[in-house]
Design goal:
The complex is a heterodimer of chains A (193) and B (166). In chain A, 69% of the residues lie in helices and 11% in strands. Chain A is mainly alpha-helical and 193 residues long. Chain A has one domain. In chain A, β2 (62-70) and β3 (76-81) form a beta hairpin. Chain B has one domain (2-155). Chain B has a 3-stranded antiparallel beta sheet with strand order 1-2-3, with helices on one face. The longest helix of chain B is centred in the middle third of the chain and has 32 residues, at 93-124. The chains are: A mainly alpha (193), B mainly alpha (166).
Chain lengths: 193, 166
Amino acid sequence: MIPPPVSLAGLVLRVLLWLPLCYALWYPAAPVLLLPAVLMSQGALHALLPGIVDHMQIGADGLRIFTTLSSAPGGHYGFTLDARSYGYGMALLAALVLATPAPRRWADLLLGLGLLQPFIAWGLVFAVLRALLAGHAEQLLPDPGARRLWTEGVQLGARLGLLAFAPLAPVLIWAGLQHRTLSRILSGGSPAT
Amino acid sequence: MRRFLIRFVFLLTALFGLSLAPFVYTHVVLPWTEAIAALGTAAAGLLDPDVMAAGKRIISRETGFSVSIEPGCNGLEPMLLLAAAMLAYPAAWRHRLIGFLSGVGFIQAANLARILTLYYLGQWSPLLFEWAHLYVWPALIVLDAVVVFLVWLRLTPPRHGPHAAG
């Protein structure tokens, strides 16, 4: 069954109403919702820097990264990242999908959250790489030329992850998943072509 | 619609890649960020005599609290989103230009609201500041760009008939 069409103003209003609820549900659920992205980023880091990142653990207080790099006698370097700052797009995507009167909204939401994971993983991978290079660049990359190249590449990747993928990927995924309903709303409610 | 999405993703990637190029970043993005910071500090100074501006920082004379306007707080990403979407849609250049300039106005108005609310929220509650800064405002600014685009789409006649983008 196709839900009744809404106007553009109605759609915006519905998004704004869904958004606070989605944020309220997303924040406590983030450690679970971000788990696939964390696993993907852990796999990517193992492939990029074999033997450096020991494991990653997501919890309510953030993403903890345990490395094999030495920081103090007998100790290993570890740090915590705010993984939620790469994953708030889940709340935005949920608000957009649920506010759009499309058939199979919940299925679209599940699919959308799945499609978002690689974009979040990208942000996490580069955030970890940036943190590692900030403190242990010489240990990781003894060659100065390679170090400079890696540092610049990681800065670009980190900027792309935080500034582009985090806010824009949810919008792209929403537009891709619900384009028929969006076309219907934009054409003033006439059937989608 | 599929053709529009492909063109849009291609243009967005190209524009974002261009904005990250070292030359563009140094000569366009950083000066743009400084201009937005100057606008933010001027607006805050007009509203509140307690506000002091120092470069790209807005500082409270009373509490010493300050916010710094950095790349990422300049509204550039939603502007690129808007530009890519408007270029991908088959509209007349005049409509694109009018739409983009109006969109920049709306995006920067929201961005100014972001800067000012963060300045005051930060003095009131660090927790709310973090929430608004990291999770809520980035989403709202992008949403602003999406709404601007959808309204523009509704008002703009397509160049090649009603189903050209489909």
